[in-house]
Design goal:
The structure is a single chain. With 333 residues, the protein is α+β, with helices and mostly antiparallel strands. The protein folds into two domains: 163 residues, 3-Layer(aba) Sandwich (Rossmann fold); 146 residues, Porin (Beta Barrel), CATH 2.40.160. Helix content is 20%, strand content 50%. The chain has six helices and 14 strands. The protein has an eight-stranded antiparallel beta barrel with strand order 7-8-9-10-11-12-13-14. The protein has a six-stranded mixed sheet with strand order 1-6-5-4-2-3. Strand 9 and strand 10 form a beta hairpin. Helix 1 crosses helix 2 and helix 3 packs across helix 4. The longest helix is centred in the N-terminal third of the chain and has 18 residues. The radius of gyration is 28 Å and the shape is elongated.
Length: 333
């Protein structure tokens, strides 16, 4: 059963009243998720969602799932973030998030004021558990949040009076979908003493990355390594070419569309072709399988990693510093 409010109220009062009404319509500790909010601007949609999350948390009667859970669900279900989902899709998203109920809303104009309409749906049955419509004044706050066409969300947030900025999510970026692909290059050196089939002290790597799933990415590349080495008075030169493939698991976050931060661990392997040139100008070449174990850290475009590599008879290590450019940003549309 829905409720309608004939009088108009300020935006923050509308959000407070609707969140309070919903909080006491549902069972205590019910898990809810705000799945979609159709509004006249990106900033208005984010502002309403952020305010509602904040008010639900302050009331403390329901368990509200945050935006990160929604972003994770969209990524796993391979969906793009949209202002409005149909009820079936919205329920599927909520079910994947582990929510008992979802909230879908819209903020639309009506004559000389706006109305905020929220519906609460049971994710299993689709039954409307609560519905609320509040008429909202078309005041300065609403005008700022809707903003002129072309104004960026960040610019709009800067124009808002501080009292109306979101307490924890003042400037929300686009939804995080931690999927990207990119190209990179790095220089490396080995700390271990060089032995047969072990990498030398100078190297250069070219690689490409692909992240088809959340927090999992694949890397393919080719490593070039060379060294001049002297042992027991005998001189030798070593050059190796090592095409490889890795799979890595990590936790990434984004501060900007192209700038990931996070740590990862990976395992992979390939075949190493090593050429030796000895002091008497004789040469020898060998091709052997190899396996790598890597830990790394990505800070914006800078990548740092440490690798242990074995050809199943010797072990070498590698410290690498390079640049990785992610060509598909988060929030890809």
């Amino acid at each position: 059963m829905g409720t309608a409010h004939a009088q108009t109220v300020r935006l923050e009062e509308a959000v407070q009243s609707t969140t309070a009404e919903i909080s006491y319509r549902l069972e205590p500790e019910a898990r809810i998720a705000i799945v979609s909010m159709q509004a006249g601007s990106y900033t208005m949609s984010n502002h309403l969602i952020g305010r509602m999350i904040n008010d639900f948390v302050n009331i403390g009667r329901l368990t509200v799932l945050d935006r990160q859970e929604l972003d994770r669900a969209l990524a796993e279900l391979d969906l793009q973030m949209e202002p409005v989902f149909d009820d079936t899709t919205a329920r599927s998203i909520g079910r994947f998030m582990g929510a008992h109920s979802i909230i879908v809303g819209r903020f639309n104009p009506l004559v000389d004021f706006y109305y905020l309409h929220l519906r609460v749906l049971n994710v299993e049955t689709g039954v409307v558990q609560a519905s609320s419509i509040v008429n909202v004044q078309n005041d300065e706050t609403v005008s700022f949040l809707l903003g002129p066409v072309g104004r960026t969300p960040t610019a709009q947030a800067q124009l808002l009076p501080s009292a109306f900025r979101l307490p924890a999510e003042a400037e929300l970026l686009e939804p995080s979908r931690i999927r990207f692909w990119g190209l990179g290059a790095s220089f490396s050196s080995s700390f271990a003493e060089m032995r047969d089939y072990a990498s030398g002290p100078f190297g250069f790597t070219l690689h490409a990355t692909l992240a088809p799933w959340n927090n999992v990415f694949f890397m393919i590349g080719c490593d070039f390594f060379w060294a001049d080495h002297e042992r027991g008075g005998e001189f030798s030169s070593t050059f190796s070419v090592y095409p490889f493939a890795h799979v890595a698991f990590g936790v990434m976050t984004f501060t900007d569309r192209f700038l990931p931060w996070g740590a990862y661990v990976g395992i992979g392997g390939g075949f190493m072709r090593t050429s030796f040139r000895f002091g008497d100008d004789t040469t020898e070449s060998r091709t052997v399988p190899a396996m790598d174990f890597t830990v790394g850290f990505q800070a914006a475009v800078i990548s740092l990693s440490y690798t242990l590599r074995t050809n199943f008879s010797t072990i070498s290590d590698r410290f690498s510093l390079g640049v990785t450019l992610n060509l598909q940003p988060r929030g890809n549309r």
